Amino acid sequence: MSERNLLVLVELVGGEPDDSAYELASEARKLAGGGTVAAALIGSGVGEAAQTLTAWFDRIHVYDDPQLAQPDGEAAAELLTTLVERDRPWATLVPHTNNGMDAAPVLAVKTGCPLVADCLSLEAADDGLKAVRTVYGGKVHARVSVRDAGQGLMATVRPGSCTTAEAPGAGGEIVTETVPADLVPHRRFVETIAPEAGAVDLTQAEILVAVGRGIEEEENLEIVQSLAEALGAEVACSRPVVDKNWLPKNHQVGTSGVTVKPKIYIAVGISGSFQHMGGLKGGGFIAAINKDPAAPIFNVADVGIVGDLFDIVPLLEEKVRELKG
Q: What's the average model confidence in pLDDT over 70-80?
């Protein structure tokens, strides 16, 4: 593979690099083929964050200014246009977040880079970039490709869809970039609305107990929730459970839900469609309970139990509580 230089837009959460920064750094390394991987860090008082990123990137372009304290996709696009046009990376990777989705289309138009949005995976090709992305609300995976016409390429990548490798210890160089004095955001920050207390964040869970249409009725969710409590796990679900309004959308795992990387994933009454499995990354341990021996979930499960979940789940909970004393 020939060497390629890539640029990654780093997302900050609470003043620290989001997990997507490390995911995209790892993905960029695979695409680079020995080329350099740089980061763009935009914010206010980001010196500590920049230092953290030196273990992951060869170069960190820092835009540090009080007027950049709040995420602003429009401002990010303005700043990165100058950087991309100057350095012309082979590809620019942007996290598919609210801010990333805001910045990427503007940046693509300004720089003339073809953009592929909401990618689940990326692959370098001789003449450009190949990607897998979802269409029709996550019902279909589309394989798309874009050709490099010399302007560079661009992709937004769904957080959680890439595996984070070990930090390469790159010893990256920190480059302080100039923030134009006339950079005046056209938007006015009002407030950040935090998630409700107790709101679930499946992306951070190490153990998930996921339930599908096999649970049959909403009142039957209790046995799955009880197992999750015994394991110290969060409850996730497949799309049919959300469609029936039995669990809120933020519990849905899949290409039209969230992408997760738990250490242990217990699938209860889930058939294992590719739309659901597309949201499960990271190579964790998968256990499946399903009464259909031909269910696709058994093709990917490390342990499969064929049987009635209403018999097996309470027994499993009993054994878990017994072992935990």
A: 93
